[in-house]
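cron nightly-structures :: item 1 of 1
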Amino acid sequence: MGMRFISAFVLTASLAAAQSGLTPPRIGFVRDSANRLRALLGISGNFWMGGTVARGVIDAASSGRASILQTRRGLIVVDTAGDPLSRPFPASGEALFAFSDDGSPALVWLRESGRLLRWTRRGFIAVPAADPGGSVVSIAAPRASSAAFLIERDREVWRVDISLGDGALLFAAKLPGVSSPALLLDDGTLLFARNSSLVLRNPEGDERAIAFDNAAIRFAPVGRDWILIDTTTTTHLVLRLSTGALFELPESTQEARR
């Protein structure tokens, strides 16, 4: 499927970087097999894991500029150095995360309670939200005043936009040919699987297919231009959106989401 595998160069490169004192490029952050948040470092096809930023992480997403964590203590936002930007916000259950177009934290959807949270300089606050009318698959922040949901109704995926001011419905449309799991990006691009491909569909409806012979179960951002793909096996992949290239992650992340 055109996927590039991690080679022995990963260890050599990481040792060389450590010995030289150079700071390797940081792509973003991922959760590892011990429920720790760690930096994902390296270049395309040659990745390794950095030090532990947080422990007890249930789920996480990263824009490269900031990360939103669901932990046993609640929701936490950390910056690029791993330093918390707020106190934990009490929240439980499965969460979906969204970032603004500049990589700042934006929204969290709590599936069990059906609550929508908005990030502010003071932390998370609950905002009014209309019932999207289905199972929420993904959430995005296309602009500061609205939230966009992908929802599944009767095996069909819809996009539903609501106002963050009063929860009013702004837009609703069925997305033909899109199936869950799917990810909605802040610019309106869709990522989903179809047959033996990953499909990137831009807002104009143009599609790019990427050969993919796994079964995806979840998509999550891990850095600017990078998406984590969980599969039905222990294999975890990252997709570079700008090139369509797929890479396998180091083994240290591969048991994380069982």
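cron nightly-structures :: done
The domain at 9-253 is CATH 2.120.10.30 (Neuraminidase).
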